[in-house]
C-alpha cells in the first residue's frame, strides 16, 4: 500500500559477529520503517576467478548497480593465491576515500568529552602503492606516489563533505616541510579546492603537531584530510579518543557517488555466535549510509536512539561495561526510536 520509493542497497553481513550485528541493523531499519530493501551477499569459500578473491563477481555487480552498500567485518583469509578482500573491494569499486566520523557518545565516559571530528583519508596511493624493492643487499627502496588526480579528488570530497554536513573547517595534514614534492603537491591540490569554498576555513597542520594537538584537545579539529599513510594512523588514533573501534563507523567512497559503509572493527572471533557483540559501529555506519542517500530523517532518528540507549546505561553490551546481549540492546534501541 506504500507508494513511496524504496532504495535497494547491498548488504554483506560478513562473518564472525557480522551476521549478528547485521541482523540488528535489519531489525532497527524495519522498526524505523526505513525505505531500504537489502540485497544480501556472502563471501564465498572458494576464489572467484573473475575477481581473484573470495568476493564474488555478482556481489561486486550488486554494489556497482545499487551504488550503495553496507559491509560487516570479514575474516582475512590466510594463504596465497588470492587478493585480500579489502584490496579487491577497493580496486573493483574504485574506493578512493575513507571517511571516519569520530563522535563522543554522551554518557559513555572516555578521557575526552565532546570529540566531534571526521578524518578523510586518501585510499589509493602514497606509501601504499606497493612499490618496494631491494636496490642492493642491505638497501631497500619504497616509492611514495602522489598524483594531482587522486589528491584533487580526495580534497574535493573533503570539502563537499564539510559543506553537506554543515562543518566549518577543513585541515590538511601533511609533512611538506620534509616531503616537499609529494606532500607539497597534496597541499597544492587542497589549496586549489579550498578556494572554491570560501565559507569553509582551510588550514594546514604538520602531522607531528597534529598528533600533539589531537591528544591535548581534539576539539581543535573539525574535518581532517590527508594522504594514505597519515590517514591510516590518525584515523585509528581518533577512534581511540572516543572509546575504541567498537563504536567507530566508516565509509568508503568511490566514483559517481558510490559508497560502501562498514564498521571499523573485525570479526571478533572470541565472541562470535554468543549474542555478545556490540552492533553500534555497524549501526552508525548504516546511519552514514542513510545520510549519504539524503535520508536524513531516519538517519537522525536511529542516531538519536543509539545515543539515548547508550547514555541511559541500562542496556549496554559487554565491551561498554554492561551485561546486555546484542538482542537486548537492539530491542532497547528499537523502544527508543
Ligand atoms: P577484532 O576487531 O575482530 O577484535 C578485537 C577485539 O575487539 C576482540 O576482543 C573483540 O571481541 C572486540 N570487538 C571487536 N568488535 C566488537 C564489537 N562490535 N562488539 C564487541 N566487541 C568487539 O580484531 P582482530 O581480532 O584483530 O581480527 C579478527 C578478524 O577480523 C581477522 O580475521 C581480521 O583480519 C578481521 N578484520 C576484518 C576487518 C574488516 O573486515 N574490515 C577489519 C579488521 C579485522
UniProtKB/TrEMBL annotation:
PANTHER family assigned: DECARBOXYLATING DEHYDROGENASES-ISOCITRATE, ISOPROPYLMALATE, TARTRATE (PTHR11835), ISOCITRATE DEHYDROGENASE [NAD] SUBUNIT ALPHA, MITOCHONDRIAL (PTHR11835:SF34)
Protein name in the entry: Isopropylmalate dehydrogenase-like domain-containing protein
InterPro entries: IsoCit/isopropylmalate_DH_CS, Isocitrate_DH_NAD, IsoPropMal-DH-like_dom
Pfam families hit by this protein: Iso_dh
Superkingdom of source: Eukaryota
SUPFAM superfamilies assigned to the protein according to its UniProt record, in alphabetical order: Isocitrate/Isopropylmalate dehydrogenase-like (SSF53659)
Gene3D superfamilies hit by this protein: Isopropylmalate Dehydrogenase (3.40.718.10)
Cofactor (UniProt): Mg(2+); Mn(2+)
Domain Isopropylmalate dehydrogenase-like: 6-333
UniProt keyword annotations, A-Z: Magnesium, Metal-binding, NAD, Oxidoreductase, Transit peptide
Family: Belongs to the isocitrate and isopropylmalate dehydrogenases family.
SMART domains for this protein: Iso_dh (SM01329)
